[in-house]
Specification:
The protein contains ten helices and twelve strands. The protein is α/β, with parallel strands linked by helices. The chain has a domain of 71 residues. The strands form three sheets. Strands 6-7-8-3-9-10 form a six-stranded mixed sheet, with helices on both faces. Strands 2-1-4-5 form a four-stranded antiparallel sheet, covered by helices on one side.
Length: 258
């Protein structure tokens, strides 16, 4: 399911409204991971929450396979969009398997029992995220990285058309970050879903991703392949500072002169 932002403005309502990102015309393709980059305060989390329907947009339309998600009921939207945010989840005494099973709630409600196919989907999702051994571990006993894997498994159990993740690799080491991005690419391709994620790991995205949305820090978002954004100077303009500069020749950040 392709995600299209048609003249979208996001921010916070008020008199006047506070616009964070304006006049966005962007596409995230089905079967592909789109990585959202940008400096701190550029509006990445605001954009993700708005796309997911957790925050009202100020203007325009967010279309998922041609349907404006802002017009969907919360229940219908929950069946089509799965979200994993950076907010710490209080799972009480729930185990990893029980948390993953919550992904079926939008489809069956609280009263229904899990069928064999759903139990199989839960087991497969945990296995795909390398979290099978966490099925009987309580969420509050897990490390941040383990908890993140279980929450992504829950999102996969939801069987969404759009998977939105805010900083999914924040609690992972370098090797695990590479593995996670590769796994999400594989999931997007195999399931034919749209995956939109934000990350601060610019160098990794530039080396591994096919498509990038870049929140430039000036209220705009530009998109394209990593090579295009590097060649145009967009990455340099977004991230260079007095002490750090982006070296376009090898795609890494270097300390500059003070």
């Amino acid at each position: 399911m392709t995600l299209v932002l048609d003249d979208v403005t996001v921010g916070y309502p008020g008199r006047p409204a506070r616009r964070i990102l304006s006049d966005l015309r962007l596409i995230a393709h089905a079967g592909q991971v789109t990585a959202l980059l940008g400096p701190n305060g550029a509006g990445k989390s605001t954009l993700l929450r708005s796309v997911a329907g957790l925050q009202r947009i100020l203007g325009g339309s967010v279309l998922l396979d041609g349907v404006d998600v802002t017009t969907l009921s919360p229940a219908h939207r929950a069946r089509r969009i799965a979200v994993v945010l950076t907010d710490r989840v209080d799972g009480g005494l729930l185990t990893g398997g029980e948390v993953a099973a919550l992904g079926r709630l939008p489809h069956q409600g609280f009263a229904s029992r899990l069928g064999d196919d759903e139990k199989r989907l839960i087991a497969e999702s945990l296995d795909r995220m390398g979290a099978t051994d966490l099925a009987d571990v309580r969420l509050h006993e897990m490390s941040d990285g383990q908890r993140q894997r279980v929450l992504i498994a829950r999102a996969l159990v939801q069987h969404p058309a759009l998977l939105v993740l805010d900083e999914p690799s924040a609690y992972l080491d370098v090797a695990a970050r590479v593995e996670l991005l590769a796994l999400l690419e594989e999931i997007a391709t195999d399931a034919g879903i749209t995956v939109l994620l934000s990350t601060h790991d610019v160098e990794l995205v530039l080396r591994t991703s096919q498509h990038v949305w870049l929140a430039a820090g000036d209220g705009t978002v530009v998109d394209g392949s990593p090579a295009t954004l590097v060649a145009s100077g967009a990455i340099t303009r977004a991230f260079d500072s007095r002490r750090v500069r982006f070296d376009a020749s090898d795609g890494i950040f270097r300390l500059g002169e003070g």
